[in-house]
Input
Amino acid sequence: MTRSSLIAAEWTKLRSVRSTPSILAVATVATIGIAVLQAHTTVRSWDGWGPRARAEFDPVFSTFSGFQLAQLAFGLLGVLAVTAEYGTGTIRATFTATPRRGRVLAAKLLVVGTVALVAGEVLAFTSFFTGQFVLAGKHLDVGLGDPNVLRAVLGQGFYVATVTILGAAIGTLLRHTAGATALTTGLLFLATTVLKAVSPDDSTTLTHWAPGVAAEGLTWTTFHDPEWPTAGFGLFVCLTYLAVTVAAAAWSLIRRDV
Output
């Protein structure tokens, strides 16, 4: 099978997974709906905020609250992009048609990663513009040309793609939807707590390696919490997770039987 045919086949498989539209719908509602709600809440309560709260307010980061839920949806999308084929048994036909399994994995990750990146960036920009429109009612809005803003919006979309590829890589390793979903969820939501628990007092070195904290490092604009890594280090953490999990998935896929 040629490379273009393989990519087309993986695109068809992703579209045929019945949960894909539902997952994208949940992510859309979560990101945009919560962005609007958060912005409205800020506008209504701003006059009662103290000096410290106002100084720490980040007009971009605050509108991305919905991505806390959306990342779970995209992680599940990545998991199902792989495990659905194992669940139905069609993976055998795939490997019969394309014995070079590394090419199959590369095509899967390319397709699901591209879809997630495009969807993530669309949602990030939509959430940003929607949130800023509401914040403008109190003159709290910022534009893409303001310091760190464009980087933060692009970073949020990139993180969505990172989470999706992580889910697909973990799905390749475990080959079981429930187990892969549990591990992906734990990595996204529990890693910070675990790393903080084993860190020396007041040290943030380990927690900076949690995916969720890396995302915060990517998406701050006006207020940089000391517990967040820099944007550059957040990017490095995401790329490290991608390199390690994809390499492990490729090794597992090539070495194990179906």
In short: The mean pLDDT is 92. The chain has one domain: 3-255. The chain has eleven helices and no strands. The two ends are 19 Å apart (CA to CA).
